[in-house]
Amino acid sequence: MTEYNPSESRNFYILGDSHSEMVHLIDSGRDFTRAMGGLLPEQSEEVQTSLRSVLDVGCGPGEWTLAMAQAFPDVQVHGIDISQGMIDYASSLAHASNLDNVHFRVGNALDPLPFPDNSFDLANMRQLEGVIPTASWPQLLKEMVRVVRPGGIVRVVGNEWCVSNSLALETMHRLMLRGWQRVGLAHVPDERNYGIAAVQGSYLRDAGCVNVQERPSIMDISIGEYFQQSGYQLFVVSLALVEPFFLSAGVMNSKEELLRLQQQLEIEMSDKDFKSIVYTLTSWGEKPTDTTLQ
After folding, report:
1. What span, in angstroms and rounded, lies between the C-alpha atoms of 224 and 9?
2. What are the φ/ψ torsions at residue 218 (nearest 5 degrees)?
3. Which of 85, 98, 226, 267 is a good FRET partner for 136, with 20 to 30 A between their CA atoms?
4. pTM beyond 0.90, yes or no
């Protein structure tokens, strides 16, 4: 991504769709899946075995979508993303894996979803807190409810920023949240948190879901922990890719300033005393049936 201009592109994704970012998303997605305990760790075995059709909104290069198709060969899995490059990459991975039960198409989640009513048993949206403008969330959740069958599940997974003892990582955090505030991606009125964890459940309820539940998880990226290298790659790669967003949002004045921050981040995240945890929250609810409405 050479520039960040969502007012023209209608694409708010801050890291672009370079090959580096696609590989980065595949790797980080796998790690988050493992840290969360699986693809659908919060769902009962009964729910999982009843699935026949699943939608992944904002699928990116298809990590979760492809993994679902592999794990559930009798389920038709559909992924939609605004980026043609992401969809082409995901489709190539599906072809290489001989998966014929996964389907990808280009589409903007800010528009009505291009599927009929009651098409899916489960609609998933994972880690799009930095992609969907705050004002667009209510309508998107209503669209996800619309395309899910009565009794089906709408699922949202969001990350809050990590807590760490690294000044560079906390500085990156502050700059990211300041930028989010300026382009309309933040869910709370200050620059301390994304705020997505506080509102996911209410978004689902406001969209019409019932039996809304939530499940937290963490990824420990401290030195010596299993996800240490994953966390290092997650933030160091992200900081390298976020330059157009930082400059466009006016939270950083020069490329040199970003380079200094990146160098300091690499040092601090490699330090023997580095500590950090990333928080994730899964929220899900059911589309009402005639029975639940009574």
Report:
1. 41
2. -135, 155
3. 85
4. yes
